[in-house]
Amino acid sequence: xxxxxxxxxxxxxDRRLNLTLVMLVMIATALGVAIISQERALKQxxxxxxxxxxxxxxxxxxxxxxxxxxxxLRPGSVELLSADVVxxxxxxxxxxFAAPLAFGDSVDGxxxxxxxxxxxxxxxxxxxxxxxxxxxxxxxxVGHASPLKVGDTFxxxxxxxxxxxxxxxxxxxxxxxxxxxxxxxxxxxxAVIIPVEQIWKLHNLPTGHPPGAETALxxxxxxxxxxxxxxxxxxxxxxxGAYGLRNLFRTEKSTAFFPxxxxxxxxxxxxxxxxxxxxxxxxxxxxxxAAVITCVVVLLRVHRRRFAVLRALGAPRTYVFACIxxxxxxxxxxxxxxxxxxxxxxxxxxxxxxxxxxxxALTPSIGVHEVSLALLMxxxxxxxxxxxxxxxxxxxxxxxxxxxx
Length: 405
Hints:
Shape: elongated
Radius of gyration: 32 Å
Structural class: alpha+beta
Oligomer: single chain
Number of domains: 2
């Protein structure tokens, strides 16, 4: 005998309650899927965001603060790397290029970064897809997501954003956008990049070149006119050189680190949070399954007469067992499958929000861990479904006849 018609009939008979049970399983599954998917997406996105920054040299202090300031362009203050160390970094023969980073201004809330053409070309993988790199102090290159277009002109405001400008001060210098970078998947997509000399000049600091040398752009700098910077991005010639440079600039005056070192520490925090949230989601799933089974047991008492009639008409106990078990499994499988979809959708929405807040492009996806979580939900549901199925399976025929009469 085919139990499926009976299963579908039971599902239709109490469609509202059954739909509620499916939604409970769906929400419990979606919660776990969203947590795992979002955590993995955040790790992948942050790794991509720092991929172009091989080695960072900065003043002694928190490397996390330096990373957030320099690579993720978060507002904040860090100690300046002294001009002496800047000279030493620029003079190193094991360096393919060393680009100073300077901050302090913004354009309509987007950060302005002062650096050199070497870093701009490095971020563009050697070729700027739209326009060109800056060639004078009054030119700028913008990130992929910047509202500024090639040919637009703008002025910078002193401060990190519209809420942090100092007295509404707008610098007199006008810049022209001459190029746009490809998407970096990081806050640099909103950055406005100008020559570091101009940042130094706007803040009344030495420009790296002798007075009157306004046509000089980038290295070689004049050692007598270098200023301190929040950090320097260093591109070593090779891997061995990278470790050598990191050790060389770990001194009393400076620190050097690979951005991946900072991410490892952040990942440990994320991992701890994920374990806690996954445990919470697992407990929620267990409670949901228990609630579903309890509702099913109560519901089957209402339908007990229907199954009693089937037994009286000669249906074997295995048929009744199959009907009840498949009924519960159908609810759990439907909820788990919907939970995968809703969890991914929720993770995408969370990614959009986090991306808007941080500038990090998140691309959540369904992987082995998410599918395993949904399958675990189904397996647990299949095991728990044995409870109501065995309850009716063990009903003696004389009790069944009493139910009918």
